[in-house]
Each structure stands twice: as structure tokens, then as C-alpha cells.
Design a protein that fits this description.
NADH Oxidase, four-stranded antiparallel beta sheet, two-stranded antiparallel ribbon, binds flavin mononucleotide
Length: 200
Amino acid sequence: MGKTLLSLLSAAMIIMTSGCCNTNSQNNVQMNADFLELAAGRYSVRHFSDKPVEQAVIDKILEAGKLAPTAVNSQPQMIYLLQSKEAMEIANRLSPCIYGAPQAFLMCYDDNRVCKRDDGNYGDIDCSIVLTHMMLEAYNLGIGTCLVGRFNPEEAVSELGLPENIHPILLMPFGYAADDAVPSPRHSEYRAMEEMFEVR
Ligand SMILES: Cc1cc2nc3c(=O)[nH]c(=O)nc-3n(C[C@H](O)[C@H](O)[C@H](O)COP(=O)(O)O)c2cc1C
């Protein structure tokens, strides 16, 4: 059975089981017991099939991004869907990390909307959170992704002719994983919990 079919089946299982939410009786927060399964199953896909992702699926991925929290709810994200031949040629010129994906999101923030702070703004944090929502919903729908920081934002602005108030933060190639796509060995290397967590 191909990896794509396997990942679609596992995504379908997650969707089927994610209907069973528990309710935390203390604060009435809905808890989905399968979120950790979803988070552990996602990995950076670095070999994509050339089959484009359907618009209905892309719409759901974008919706997940819309629901993300941002500083003072400023929603400064500006998301470009790169998918034309010309746009994907630019994406591949910008970064060696597009991995044959037929489509990619370029996640930016809008300087006219972003929440400022003394030493800058929250744009890169907001964009990272929005993109994480999108990445996890993509995986939930059987779509592979890879977050890519390896590109020059100024080159992206000039190659794509973006307005000067738009600041690119991350690229995210996405698509159906190729049959031979596998997680990198680093995917399952985790630091010990006690190294990264303490109670004070
Ligand atoms: C901010 C950020 C930038 C990243 N940039 C790249 C990149 O330029 N190229 C790439 O192949 N992967 C990139 N990654 C993916 C990480 O290498 C990957 O998430 C990490 O090794 C863990 O593997 P996993 O995603 O398979 O769990 C980036 C991830 C993050 C969070």
C-alpha cells in the first residue's frame, strides 16, 4: 500500500475519532484526546507528488489559519498562495527547500496591521502561530507540509512584487507526499522533558 494512501487512511482515522471530544467538567473546555496523535504523526515532508491540492482542501487549511490567535487580535497575516508555473519558478529560485511541491504558501505580516512593541512587533510570532494552525490542519486532511525559513525575505518581496508594508516570514511548500516520502531521523529526536521544563 502506498505511503500516500496510508497517510490518507491515518488522517481519515484521526478525523473519525476526533469527533469524540471530552468535556473538562471544571471549565467546560472541549478536549480532543487525539491531538497528541495528530501532533506526533505530522512530519516535514521533503518529497511531494506533483498532484495539486484541491481548492476545497486549501480553503479548510486557510480557515484553520484564520482561527489562530494573534497579538491583540491584530490578524496581521498576509498569505500568498503560490501555484502558477511562474510563481512556483520564483519559489524554487528563492529556496532550495520547495522539494517538488506543486504549491506553497508564503506567510507574511502586514506592517500596517501588526501589533507593535517597544523592541519591534509581534509579526513573526503571529505568523508562526497562524502557519502552525495551517500545518496541522493540512496534516489532518492528509496534506504534507514543510516549514521553510531558508530564503531571503527581501528577494521574495522583489521577485513577487509585494508592497513595501508586507514582510515575508516563512514559506510552506505543501502537497500530497510522494510515495517514498519519509520523516527525517531528526523528526523523532526529542530532548528530555526535564531539560526543557521546570516548575517554579
Ligand atoms: C522556523 C523553522 C524554519 C525551518 N526551516 C526549514 C528549511 O529552511 N528547510 C527545511 O527543510 N526544513 C525547515 N524546517 C523544518 C525543521 O527542520 C523540522 O521541523 C525539524 O527538523 C523537525 O522535524 P519534523 O518537522 O519532521 O518533526 C524549519 C522549521 C522551522 C520551525
